[in-house]
Amino acid sequence: LYWSIQLEITMEVTPDNMNNSGSDPNPQVIYRCKKCRRIVASHEHVVSHERGEGQKCFKWKKRSGEVDEEPPECSSVFVEPMKWMQAVEEGCVGDKLQCVGCKARLGSFNWAGMQCNCGAWINPAFQLHKSRIDECRI
User: How many CA atoms lie within 13 A of 35 on its CB side?
Assistant: First the structure.
């Protein structure tokens, strides 16, 4: 009797799972450390922001002199504070963010905020550099 119930449950669940996996227009996104492949964040942890006005938002000494009509693509992902962020747990106001597994530098954080390369100001800021993480779709 037990095996027949399990078989019926499996038969009922399998076709639904197959249909949902193929029709999902927005697959789940996770971010992994490029060096050791440890998962450091998922799409639910990302803090979205509106793109700034590019070079206009920076101090004049930090501008490159080029006039951009469109702000650049963001080179970082901003996330919520998480338990793996050891420097945050220690009570620092701002510091580097290192991977728990391999100690590679993934980004930085500052409770007072940071400016994204697109010009937008994010407060508080927990920044992961896209060049140090892999974006994986599930």
Answer: 10
